[in-house]
Specification:
The complex is a heterodimer of chains A (110) and B (404). Chain A is of the alpha/beta class and 110 residues long. Helix content of chain A is 40%, strand content 25%. Chain A has a single domain, classed as 3-Layer(aba) Sandwich (Glutaredoxin). Classes of the chains: A alpha/beta (110), B mainly alpha (404). The interface between A and B is medium-sized, with 13 and 18 residues.
Chain lengths: 110, 404
């Protein structure tokens, strides 16, 4: 299940999550973001309970995007233990995103 | 040998890592970590950065006002209006400085979006150049504050975790108080429920008792009495009917020759003889007595028997009949009164029972609602306790288990 993260709940949702977190920074006016959404949702179901999937609307949370250094969208940030482990900008297909998720889980276990 | 050693070490390490702490001790525990860790350096950086911003903000505002007095209004009024919206922080801590940065970010966004032509016009003046320079420095300082704030996720994360842990501790404390409050409320509702159920039980018993008393006693007795009166009345009425029926033929013969109206009355008289005994009947009796109509021997005897019955028994029976009728009327009245009183009593008790049933239902509903609210809070408590444990661990404390 994909939940939304904002400036208010960002720390609690990401920093203190006991599982890895992936955040999709998107906006309503961004066509590639909208095209990527189904892939993100599909993988969120597949990895439920193992990885937390969050979305952040940069139109509503500009300061948060700025704080985390998000300059373009769609951008994915991969967190492990509250720290950014990887950044990925642009649209991803299911296979390459899944590859990144597996790497993230591996990194988090190290 | 080596296997035993490994198990032993593993066991020891686990034991040392998880420390069980009472929730009431958590505040002191956080304070202890705070004193052990060097976090003042980070707060100094934040404070310096904030003070620098505020100083630069005042300088920029002054310079813009100077420029405004030269006649430049378009740009300055827009910028000053937005800069005035930057509020000072109440407390110099991470959350309020983050909030300050976030608010400032949106205010700056508005300034940056002022059309370039308007922005460009101010550069014609020396004061304008100065103001723009100060504004750029202000923007740079805000950017510097951001960099320091981001450090709370890196090298100064301890300060952030401790700040969050203190905040979370207060949140958890509030949830525990709310749960306690709900528990008290649940207890009082349980007592209320028990009282209502007891009253309902008593009401049901009273209803049963009254119902049985009504059915078996007074009303049955009264009904019995009325039935016996009815039987007596029928007996008297039948006796009269029989005697009149026997004397019918000679009476009709006499009346036929004397009085047509009386004859008609006599024919309808038979239906309810006792109710119809009135002046006309006595006139009929009188006419029979003084009649000179010729009757045969049998007719004469029957008529004489009828007249003797009228003279000696009928009057007596009529009085008896009327008395019985009156008694029946009175008893029926009593019966009606008793029935109505009992019905009212039953209705009141039934209404009371219904009210109590409704109350028990309402109390049960209230109890369910409270239990649901308590369960939700307990779920929230478990979630927040877990987060607090992670916060403390990340802040450099041991891996702990909070006991409530």
């Amino acid at each position: 299940m994909v939940e939304h993260v904002n400036e208010e709940n960002f720390e609690e949702e990401i920093l203190y999550s006991d599982i890895p977190v992936v955040v999709d920074f998107w906006a309503t006016w961004c066509a590639p973001c909208l095209a990527f959404a189904p892939t993100f949702k599909k993988l969120s179901k597949k990895y439920e309970g193992r990885i937390k999937f969050l979305k952040c609307d940069v139109g509503k949370n500009k300061a948060l995007a700025d704080l985390l250094g998000v300059k373009a969208i769609p951008t994915l940030l991969f967190f492990c233990d509250g720290e950014v482990r990887e950044r990925a900008t642009g649209k991803y297909d299911t296979e390459s995103l899944e590859e990144k998720l597996k790497n993230l889980m591996k990194k988090c276990q190290e | 040998m080596s296997r035993i050693r490994i198990n032993f070490l593993f066991g020891r390490r686990e034991e040392k890592q998880i420390e069980a702490i009472e929730f009431s001790e958590i505040e002191n525990y956080i304070e202890r970590i705070k004193s052990e860790k060097k976090i003042s350096e980070y707060y100094d950086k934040l404070n310096d950065s904030y003070e620098k911003i505020m100083k630069r903000l005042e300088e920029a505002k002054k310079s813009l006002k100077k420029l405004e007095s030269r006649g430049e209004k378009k740009f300055t009024s827009l910028v000053i209006k937005n800069l005035e919206r930057i509020k000072e922080v109440d407390e110099l801590n991470i959350p309020s400085l983050q909030q300050f940065y976030t608010n400032t970010f949106y205010i700056i966004d508005k300034i940056v979006k002022i059309p370039p032509q308007i922005q460009y016009e101010v550069l014609e003046y020396e004061e304008g150049k100065e103001a723009v320079k100060l504004l750029n420095s202000f923007l740079k300082d805000v950017g510097d504050l951001k960099k320091i704030l981001v450090m709370r996720y890196g090298e100064y994360s301890t300060a952030n975790h401790l700040e969050n842990a203190s905040k979370k501790y207060k949140e958890v404390k509030k949830i525990i108080e709310d749960i306690k409050h709900i528990e008290d409320e649940i207890q009082s509702v349980i007592e209320e429920k028990e009282d209502a159920e007891k009253l309902l039980e008593e009401g049901t018993e009273a209803l049963k008792h009254i119902s049985s008393r009504i059915d078996t006693k007074e009303i049955i007795e009264l009904r019995k009495h009325i039935n016996s009166l009815d039987a007596k009345l029928v007996e008297i009425s039948s006796d009269l009917k029989l005697r009149i029926s026997r004397a019918r033929r000679p009476i009709s013969k006499i009346l036929h020759s004397k009085d047509k109206k009386m004859l008609d009355f006599f024919h309808t008289f038979m239906k309810y003889p006792l109710e119809n005994i009135n002046e006309k009947f006595w006139k009929i009796v009188d006419t029979i007595r003084t009649s000179d109509v010729e009757l045969n021997k049998d007719e004469n005897r029957t008529l004489n028997e009828f007249l003797i019955f009228v003279e000696h028994e009928l009057k007596k029976n009529i009085d008896k009949y009327n008395k019985l009728e009156e008694e029946k009327k009175q008893i029926s009245g009593i019966l009606k009164k008793v029935s109505s009183r009992n019905e009212k009593l039953l209705e009141n008790i039934e209404n009371e029972k219904k009210d109590l049933e409704e109350k028990v239902r309402a109390v049960n509903k209230k109890l369910e609602k409270l239990k649901k609210a308590r369960n939700n809070l307990q779920h929230l408590l478990r979630k927040n306790i877990k987060i607090l444990e992670i916060m403390i661990k990340k802040a450099g404390g041991n891996r702990i288990k909070i006991k409530i």
